[in-house]
């Protein structure tokens, strides 16, 4: 697809452009704020969320001229070109896209070899599904202040068929991403949510973005919203565990890590 070709002769463009591609509730907000804490990196959130244009969390005070959803949706690729031209003095500039957002833009960035791809997954498919159900129930997708966490998390019921369909839908999304990258001869950096707290993973991310090591650790501002033990969240936990006997999803349901 078309677009302005980035080059070293164009001072308006960051040296490195990137996109984080992820299914919902796989830790993408956490990853965005993690790498955005590096002084050379500016990482926006969901620029193409149907509900709004979500810039980097630290720039939501009007540092960038906010564009309306209508302005963005009138010319999504043109909107992205304007974003690419506002690195704000940062060497690396990126954003994230989740499953189901702005399909033409997703194809545009996936097919553009000048945009580096970070593909984020969560190994635990049950926690991914449960987290999405809780977020939908609360209508809360980002939390940056402990005071904004509810005193009690809502509990949800989870049907085995619903869980399997959710996992299959996400897998089809990732297969599509992989197929596009393979067809265009591109590579990507694959990252798992469960590894994001490891400093070795931070080093991998910075190397992929050609960001020099920093003398302070990367620190995310996004807060974890759900407990690791799904017994505290899934109301029909015992029935679900029984229904999943012989299915690898059962091990993920019982997992008390991350």
Key features?
258 residues; alpha/beta; Rossmann fold; five-stranded parallel sheet; disordered N terminus
How would you explain this protein's 3D organization?
By secondary structure, the protein is an alpha/beta fold. It has a 5-stranded parallel beta sheet, sandwiched between helices. It contains 9 helices and 5 strands, in the order βαβααβαβααβααα. The relative contact order is 0.19. The chain has a domain at 16-124 and 144-152 and 170-225: Rossmann fold, CATH 3.40.50.
Q: Kindly report the spatial arrangement of strands forming the biggest sheet.
A: 2-3-1-4-5
Number of strands: 5
* Rg value: 19 Å
Residues in helix, %:
25-40%
Q: If classified by CATH, what would the architecture of the domain at 16-124 and 144-152 and 170-225 be?
A: 3-Layer(aba) Sandwich
Mean pLDDT: 88
Which fold does the CATH topology of the domain at 16-124 and 144-152 and 170-225 refer to? Rossmann fold
**Which outline best applies?**
globular
Distance between the termini: 39 Å
Q: What profile does the largest beta sheet have?
A: 5 strands, parallel
**Low-pLDDT stretches:** 1-9
Number of helices: 9
Order of helices and strands: EHEHHEHEHHEHHH
Percentage of residues in DSSP E strands: 5-15%
- Global structural class: alpha/beta
CATH class categorisation of the domain at 16-124 and 144-152 and 170-225? Alpha Beta
In short:
The protein is of the alpha/beta class and 258 residues long. It has a domain at 16-124 and 144-152 and 170-225: 3-Layer(aba) Sandwich (Rossmann fold), CATH 3.40.50. The protein is built from nine helices and five strands.
